[in-house]
Amino acid sequence: MPASALLVGVIIIPLVGAVLTPVVGGRSGRAAGPWALAVMLVTSAIALMLIVHVANVGPFSAYLGGWEPPYGIELRFDEFSASTSVICLLGTLSILFSFKYAEKELPPERIRYYYTLLLLNLTGMIGFVVTGDIFNLFVFMEILSLSGYALVAVSGERTAEMAAFKYLIMGAVSSLMVLFAIGLLYALTGSLNMADISVRLAGAEKAPAMLAIAAFTVGFMVKAALFPLHIWLPDAHAIAPSPVSAILSGLVVKTGLLGMIRIYQIYYGAKVLDLSALNTVLVWLGAISIVMGAFFAIFQEDIKMMLAYSTISNVGYIIMGLGLASQYGVIGAAVHIFNHALIKATLFLGAGAIIYRTGYRNLTDLRGIGRSMPLTTAAISIGAISIVGMPPTAGFLCKWYIALGAVEAGQPLFAVALVFGALFIFVYYIRMVNTFYFQEPVHPEILEVEEAPLSMLFPVLILAALCLIMGILGRIPLSFVEPAVTRLLAPLGG
């Protein structure tokens, strides 16, 4: 099958699967889970073929309806688009995890709609990372955002609905900023195709072009939950069903970061603006986000709330790497987008398995759980040392590269901020591990619980194993994204 057909298929298949899920699932919703899993397995196979193709021949495009850009809609697959593999992997494992979880936590009549929303959310994310058109970038962002709001509120509980409403308000601000920026770029260039805009932008007025990238930055940073634009994230991630929390933290916030990479591809290629001032702001905001996210996490008693604040901290690492605009820094940031998704999915699904079995969310109530759920807590512990950045886990090389990027950019102070943030992160994860293994239970019955069902335990163990594998084989993803980073920074002399 031609690569262009595969590129269209990787979006169409989950979209059609989502549309058919309410029908296939029936009123009971029992068939919805296996159907959604089958859809994602097929999508994952296509994504894998696309990644092999880009590794062999480099970036490529597909033109919908045979209309070539700038008039037609372009789908573009490059090394950054390899994030589709992580989207498909986490989507597949989250759906498998949901089989038992959804039966217990959701009203039966909502189960088929839950899987519909999951597939729509994954479709939006895949479309977002492969589109070559800024308006369709917005369209796919809205698909994943609207489905995300609904997934947070899917349980129908009052607290979930309030968290979803806060998420919706902040998401609306993000969408308006991005749409405003798209309108500005279209007014300046008369085009919506990213590559074409990059060419035409070279002769555009600088002030509106700078206003556009400022609006893009604010919009995408809200989506990424960068401090202090993070206020929607803690409640949404903590209150949502755990498989949804894994997707929100592991994937949805990354769309804001990948959106920034796409916009940088336009602006760096155009050579129209000096973005050093913007990059300085991003580096400082990244450093502040690292420290503040970790600081707030230290004081959390709710395990999912702690993990939510940890996401804010790690978004800071990625933003810092992008803002440094150095080869090492951007490579580390790009790979950390992928690796952090694996780590946070491990942690959120592991926490979800514990909550499923015990009914408890607070650390005090979970004392001694490591004795009765050793596999789950071992997986969470691997995720914890990964998020801290200890070798040989997935979090180490990324953060090491970002630190090297700070030195390479002549800003070693930010490497110190990175280490300081890692120490903060170490404190609250050690607190969690200490609670699991070394404290006497408050509730004696917690020693009698069993491991979660296999459909829930298997995804957690697979993700924990990947946290180790991606650390041991970390040079592979770093080498994979290096050509894309070189092309991105080439106009800067990077």
Briefly, what is this?
The chain has 494 residues and is mainly α. It is 76% helix and 2% strand.
What does the model show?
This protein is mainly α and 494 residues long. The protein has a domain at 276-494. Helices cover 76% and strands 2% of the residues. The chain has a two-stranded antiparallel ribbon with strand order 1-2. α13 (327-358) packs antiparallel against α18.
Provide the low-confidence segments as ranges.
Answer: none
Major sheet: size, sense and barrel closure?
2 strands, antiparallel
Strand order of the largest sheet: 1-2
- Report the radius of gyration as a whole number of Å: 21 Å
The tally of strands reads 2
Percent helix, as a range, is: over 70%
Structural class comes to mainly alpha
The end-to-end span amounts to: 37 Å
What distinguishing features does this structure have?
19 helices, 494 residues
Structural topology:
Blueprint: H1 3-25, H2 32-57, E1 60-63, E2 74-77, H3 83-105, H4 111-130, H5 134-152, H6 158-189, H7 194-200, H8 206-224, H9 233-239, H10 242-270, H11 276-298, H12 303-324, H13 327-358, H14 369-372, H15 374-388, H16 394-408, H17 412-438, H18 454-472, H19 475-489
Antiparallel strand pairs: 1-2
Helix pairs in contact: 1-2, 1-4, 2-3, 2-4, 3-4, 3-10, 3-13, 3-18, 4-5, 4-10, 5-6, 5-10, 6-8, 6-9, 7-10, 8-10, 9-10, 9-12, 10-12, 10-13, 11-12, 11-17, 12-13, 12-16, 12-17, 13-15, 13-16, 13-18, 13-19, 15-17, 15-18, 16-17, 16-18
